[in-house]
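Q: Hi! First time asking for a complex rather than a single chain. Here are the components, and I think there are two in total. Is that enough to go on?
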Amino acid sequence: MTGTVRVSEVTKTYGRVTAVREASFTLGQGELVALIGHNGAGKTTLMKLMLGLIRPTSGSIEVLGDNPAAGEFAGRRQLGYLPENVSFDPALTGRETQAFYARLKREPVAKALELLDAVGLGAASRRRVNTYSKGMRQRLGLAQALLGHPRVLLLDEPTTGLDPELRQTFYDIIARLAAGGATVLLSSHALTELEERAGRVIIMNRGIKVADGSIEELRRLARLPTRIRLRVAGLAPSELPGWAPKDATCRRLNGHIVEIDAAPERKIELLHRATAAGNSVEDVDVVPPTLDELYAHFLRQSEQAP
Amino acid sequence: MNVLIIAAKEIHQAIRNRWVLAATLLLAGLALSLTFLGSAPTGNVGVRALDVVIVSLSSLTIFLVPLIALLISHDAVVGEMERGTMLLLLSYPVARWQVLLGKFLGHLAVLGFATCLGYGAAAGALAATGSDIDSDSLLAFAAMVGSSVLLGAAFVAIGYLVSALVRDRGTAAGICIGLWLLLVLIYDMALLGVLALDQGRSISATVLNALLLSNPTDAYRLINLTGFANVSTFAGMAGLAQNISLTVPVLLTALLCWTLLPLGLAALAFSRREL
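A: Yes, that's all I need. Here is the structure of the assembled complex.
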């Protein structure tokens, strides 16, 4: 795996505020990486640093062989960026805007205009951008980011304002690009969406990278319990089944569901116990910790750390 | 290449926003009214009409062209930053100086088009109404139009410098209005006042020359009102022209410096800017 984006020991301060503190990571080809963290955690700052829009206070960054802080930009032909709250010159139409950006990347304009159809802008592309809704601007933003088969895609909150259908198309497109070897870094608040798609998650809190790894790795690290939900027949409303372990948290959810918080390594054992108890168990659901929970866990952990 | 792409987009936008139309109509309208109303006091006998027009148009230019130039340029950097379009543009494979130079060429083209067409209309109207125009006058007229565009370029560059330095559009607009007042109105009045008070005791001709060169509008005025013998007689500047040793090439160089220096500084400020 070759690294396309290398961030080493990067710190960025604005006056007394430290937006990013000693962050280091390497993003490889074909990786789809989710960058999560709440507002002000340093996600946008990291992307701006990768683009050379701002310079790191210390540390170094390399993107597609360029040092963006030194104003090198040859690699940017193969880089797509979608800023948060993307905006365009209101007087131009969608097609004119897309054609302008295509020329800057030396891409054939005709092919660039096809992208407008791919993101579902269609007929609206002949209208001026100042008539666009937020969702339409976002589509145009995506279309320009996809110009020229990018090897690195930096997407800042890409799915805000997109309807569910386009969201699906959007994730299909980036999954295809990642499969083709592109590095996709996307920041988002829609954690449930990312859960199934991101191969790797980087969690930021107050400018510090607090976790980095695949969801499975993060689950292992976090040691959050897996929830086992069983539908059990013939129990009184607040009664717990006899086989329920004494050393794990059990609770009743509603009429007939018993929920057990199982430590990762006890999952199978507990399931065995439940099924061994006879056929009172009618149904079972195993819910591993979600990205939401992992995120909350790592934030808590980093807040508690000195 | 990038520079040209950006310049083309600026021109496209200026056409779409009716900037080109507005500037051209404004300049043409004023030039035509000056041409026909302005010739009333001199009458039409024995006076070369185009020379009179040059005098009145260059006075108009001093007020109007810097204003138009600052209006289109003060917003160039800070406005795009505020709207968020700069963020996206700079993520493309373009250098910041290319962005600035592209915008400059685009804005200059808009201004040049408006000036040539607007003032050309005045000259055309004179020719059409049967005034005889000799080649000397025509040359002086062409020089007037050319130097007007150069004056515009200087103020576009000054506008960029302001735009690249300040934090928000309002400040840029305020500073530009201040600069316009200072360079176009106050400077000359103050200079005149100082000269009158001084009575030639401590301000030598060299100092005066330096003072005149350090304002682009004065350099422009001198080019047009003293640079051509046929014009300076009407401008009432013939006397002044003999005392001032500034030649047209020196004045042109001054204007050029007033363009290149702010433009270079704007590029420097922009390249250091974080957004």
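A: Chain B has a mean pLDDT of 86. Let me know if you'd like any chain examined more closely.
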